[in-house]
C-alpha cells in the first residue's frame, strides 16, 4: 500500500480577481468518492477578497455532497498552534529570481488510522493536523490514487475566464520561470520512501491555457520534477 507522498511546490503566485487557483496533492478512493488534498491557493471569493497566497486543505467523504469542507471545517483536527490552513504564506518566488519552496506531506498513521498533514519550509518540518479515520469509508484504509498538480476555477459566470496557474508561464520557460513540483515520493507498505512511479499519467484538459512538461537538463539542479501552468484566459 502506497499512502504517503511528499512533493515540493514552488510558491509563485500571480493574482486574478474572482477566480480560484490551487496547486496541490490529492489522495482519493472510491466507490463513494473520498478525497483529501493540500497545497496553496489564491481564492478571493472564499477569503474575503484577499489575493494573498494561502495554505489550504480540502476533503470530501461523500462525493462532494457537502461542498464547503475547506480548512478548519468538516472534522479536521488541528494540533499545531501556528501552522494552520488558511494562513498566509509570506514568501513567494520571484520570476527569474529567488525560488521559494514548501513541502507538503499526507500520510496514514498505522497506530490510529488517521490521515496526517505535514508541512515543511526553511524552518523545518511540523505535523499540522489530521483527518480522523472515522470521517471516511473508502479512504479509511488506503488510497488508490494520488495526484499532483494545479487547478483553476472561475466564478464570473457566464464569462468564463480562467486565472493564471503557477507563475502564469508555460513549462517551456523552465526553471525560475515556470512553476514546478519536484522529488515526489510515496511511502510503501514497508514504510520506506520510494520515488513516485515513473509511469505517471499526464492530464492537461486545456493545453491552450495550461501545459505540463519537464526538462532533463534541470534534474541536476532540482531533481526529478515537472513544470506546470500557464497564463489561463478563455479556455
How would you sum up this structure, described in words?
The chain is mainly beta. The chain has one helix spanning about 220, and strands spanning about 5, 10, 20-30, 35-40, 55-60, 75-80, 100-110, 115-120, 125-130, 145-155, 180, 185, 195, 210-215, 225-230. The strands form 3 sheets. An 8-stranded antiparallel β-sheet has the order 6-9-8-7-2-11-15-14, with no helix packed on it. Strands 5-4-3-10 form a 4-stranded antiparallel β-sheet, with no helix packed on it. A 3-stranded antiparallel β-sheet has the order 1-12-13, with no helix packed on it. A hairpin with a 6-residue loop joins β7 (about 100-110) and β8. It is globular, with a radius of gyration of 17 Å.
* Uncertain stretches of 5 or more adjacent residues: 1-20
Strand order of the largest sheet: 6-9-8-7-2-11-15-14
Q: Which sequence of SSEs, written as H and E, runs from N to C?
A: EEEEEEEEEEEEEEHE
Radius of gyration: 17 Å
Largest β sheet strand count, sense and barrel closure:
8 strands, antiparallel
Count of DSSP E strands? 15
Class by alpha and beta content: mainly beta
Approximate helicity band: under 10%
Indicate the proportion of strand residues.
35-45%
The number of helical elements comes to 1
Shape descriptor reads: globular
Average pLDDT, rounded to a whole number, is 81
Distance between the termini: 37 Å
What characteristics describe this protein?
mainly beta, 8-stranded antiparallel beta sheet, disordered N terminus, 4-stranded antiparallel beta sheet, 36% strand, 235 residues, 1 helix, single chain
Amino acid at each position: 500500500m502506497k499512502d504517503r507522498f511528499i512533493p515540493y511546490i514552488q510558491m509563485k503566485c500571480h493574482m486574478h480577481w474572482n477566480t480560484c487557483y490551487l496547486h496541490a496533492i490529492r489522495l482519493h478512493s472510491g466507490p463513494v468518492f473520498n478525497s483529501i488534498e493540500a497545497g496553496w491557493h489564491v481564492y478571493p471569493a472564499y477569503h474575503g477578497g484577499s489575493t494573498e497566497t494561502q495554505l489550504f486543505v480540502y476533503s470530501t467523504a461523500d462525493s462532494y455532497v457537502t461542498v464547503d469542507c475547506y480548512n478548519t471545517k468538516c472534522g479536521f483536527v488541528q494540533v499545531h498552534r501556528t501552522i494552520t490552513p488558511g494562513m498566509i504564506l509570506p514568501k513567494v518566488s520571484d520570476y527569474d529570481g529567488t525560488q521559494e519552496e514548501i513541502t507538503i506531506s499526507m500520510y496514514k498513521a498505522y497506530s490510529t488510522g488517521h490521515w496526517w498533514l505535514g508541512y515543511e519550509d526553511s524552518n523545518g518540518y511540523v505535523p499540522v493536523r489530521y483527518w480522523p479515520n472515522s470521517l471516511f469509508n473508502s479512504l479509511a484504509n488506503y488510497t488508490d490514487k494520488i495526484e499532483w498538480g494545479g487547478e483553476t476555477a472561475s466564478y464570473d459566470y457566464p464569462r468564463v475566464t480562467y486565472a493564471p496557474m503557477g507563475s502564469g508561464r508555460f513549462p517551456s520557460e523552465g526553471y525560475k520561470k515556470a512553476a514546478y513540483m519536484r522529488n515526489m515520493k510515496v511511502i510503501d507498505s514497508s514504510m520506506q520512501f520510494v520515488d513516485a512511479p515513473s509511469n505517471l499519467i499526464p492530464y492537461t484538459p486545456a493545453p491552450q491555457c495550461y501545459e505540463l512538461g519537464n526538462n532533463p537538463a534541470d534534474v541536476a539542479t532540482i531533481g526529478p520534477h515537472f513544470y506546470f501552468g500557464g497564463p489561463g484566459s478563455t479556455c
